[in-house]
């Protein structure tokens, strides 16, 4: 199988990830639950994983790194901390359902900072028009999961600091690809999956918490700390990590983050962009194809959407799957992004690359697409 669905989850993981997960099953119990070697091995892996992530995101304190089960879980924690029922929020026009559905559940008034695709300056202008100090939170994804559009989160963060509004960054599609310095950003929260560009396994996610924030809890239970109290601890990460940790997941995520840091974000991003550029060029020449890409990709990563005239995107996705190429077709859990880009009616076919894809795979896509369309 040729796998071009890394925006959903990365499928090819570095071999060290699998080895670390098997190692965890063999050697680790649960962190914070005892002083015996298996508990200590788990505590060390959890601490090392927090430390690596803190360094990657410019955080001083590894305890600000909270493990979650995915990005959705992390976003729910962030949103439900800052947005009261019926609150007011400004979000970008490229948010995922993991942002918009929790807001709908809260009955929040949502103002959308609309902007055309690949126009970062329009994103900033739009936020500047809508954000004032009556807003409970601003939410902005770093990269669109449908179009790979890089949104100007640093500029949006500057605006939020100026106007005293807490910011949540959804880094789901940027983690492991684009740098972000949480301390410079001054964001309240940055949420991400562990299982996409950080190459951890499914079932892992991370919430980075800004200093001085007291997050709400979605779950209450055992933490191995302050056991006599019936309230959750006030301190992080315990406050948000009730119950036994996903140690194979965290050990795998640690290996994934180490891979990313060793390889370097810049090298990974360069590779994924080269593949995007190549796919855009090769698909563009086929009859009836519309590719959503920028010629120089200055505001785009390794995610590329396209449509084909006369084809329903789901049918095209199925035809590609039958030829051994895995893509995602439809609305990609992000109807708002499709509305902003004008593709809501039919959706798109999405290609999303990882560090493990090759130019030969993109060439194969081109020849398979040529045959399908013929
Ligand atoms: N936000 C964005 C931008 C995403 O692309 C995704 C995953 N498609 C999510 C949030 C949710 O991530 P998870 O599946 O880890 O909950």
Detailed description of the structure:
About 40% of the residues lie in helices and about 15% in strands. Strand 3, helix 4 and strand 4 (about 110-115) form a beta-alpha-beta unit. Helix 2 runs parallel beside helix 8, helix 3 (about 70-80) runs parallel beside helix 4 (about 95-105) and helix 9 runs parallel beside helix 12 (about 360-374). The longest helix is centred in the N-terminal third of the chain and has 20 residues, at about 35-55. The chain is an alpha/beta fold. Strands 2-8-7-6-5-3-4 form a seven-stranded mixed beta sheet, with helices on both faces. A four-stranded antiparallel beta sheet has the order 9-10-13-12, with helices on one face. Bound molecules: 4'-deoxy-4'-aminopyridoxal-5'-phosphate. The site of 4'-deoxy-4'-aminopyridoxal-5'-phosphate (PMP) has 15 residues, from helix 3.
List key phrases describing it:
single chain, alpha/beta, 12 helices, 13 strands, globular, binds 4'-deoxy-4'-aminopyridoxal-5'-phosphate
Helix proportion: 25-40%
**Main sheet record:** 7 strands, mixed
Bound molecules: 4'-deoxy-4'-aminopyridoxal-5'-phosphate
| Overall number of strands | 13
- Side by side, the strands of the main sheet go 2-8-7-6-5-3-4
Report the average pLDDT across residues: 97
Tally of alpha and pi helices: 12
Secondary structure category: alpha/beta
């Amino acid at each position: 199988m040729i796998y071009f669905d890394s925006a959903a989850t990365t499928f090819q993981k570095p071999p060290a990830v699998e080895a670390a997960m098997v190692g965890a099953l063999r050697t680790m119990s649960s962190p914070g639950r005892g002083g015996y070697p298996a508990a200590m091995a788990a505590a060390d892996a959890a601490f090392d994983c927090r430390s690596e992530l803190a360094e990657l995101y410019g955080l001083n304190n590894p305890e600000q790194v909270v493990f979650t089960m995915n990005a959705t879980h992390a976003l729910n924690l962030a949103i439900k901390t800052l947005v009261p029922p019926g609150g007011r929020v400004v979000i970008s026009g490229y948010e995922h359902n993991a942002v918009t559905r929790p807001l709908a559940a809260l009955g929040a008034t949502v103002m959308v900072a609309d902007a055309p695709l690949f126009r970062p300056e329009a994103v900033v202008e739009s936020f500047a028009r809508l954000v004032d100090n009556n807003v409970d939170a601003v939410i902005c994804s770093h990269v669109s999961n449908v179009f790979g559009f890089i949104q100007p989160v640093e500029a949006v963060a500057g605006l939020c600091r100026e106007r005293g509004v807490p910011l949540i960054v959804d880094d789901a599609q940027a983690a492991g690809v684009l740098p972000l310095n949480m301390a410079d950003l001054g964001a309240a929260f940055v949420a991400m999956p562990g299982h996409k560009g950080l190459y951890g396994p499914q079932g892992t996610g991370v919430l980075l918490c800004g200093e001085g924030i007291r997050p709400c809890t979605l779950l209450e239970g055992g933490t191995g700390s302050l056991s006599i109290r019936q309230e959750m601890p006030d301190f992080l990460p315990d406050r948000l990590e009730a119950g036994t940790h996903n140690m194979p997941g965290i050990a795998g995520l640690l290996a994934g983050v180490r891979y990313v840091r060793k390889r370097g974000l810049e090298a990974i991003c360069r590779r994924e962009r080269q593949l995007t550029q190549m796919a855009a060029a090769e698909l563009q020449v086929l009859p009836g194809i519309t590719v959503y890409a920028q010629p120089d990709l200055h505001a785009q990563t390794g995610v590329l959407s396209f449509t084909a005239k006369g084809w329903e995107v789901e049918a095209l996705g199925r035809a590609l799957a039958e030829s051994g190429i895995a893509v995602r077709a439809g609305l990609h859990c992000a109807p708002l992004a499709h509305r902003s880009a004008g593709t809501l009616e039919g959706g798109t076919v999405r290609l999303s690359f990882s560090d493990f894809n090759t130019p030969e795979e993109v060439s194969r896509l081109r020849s398979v697409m040529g045959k399908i369309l013929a």
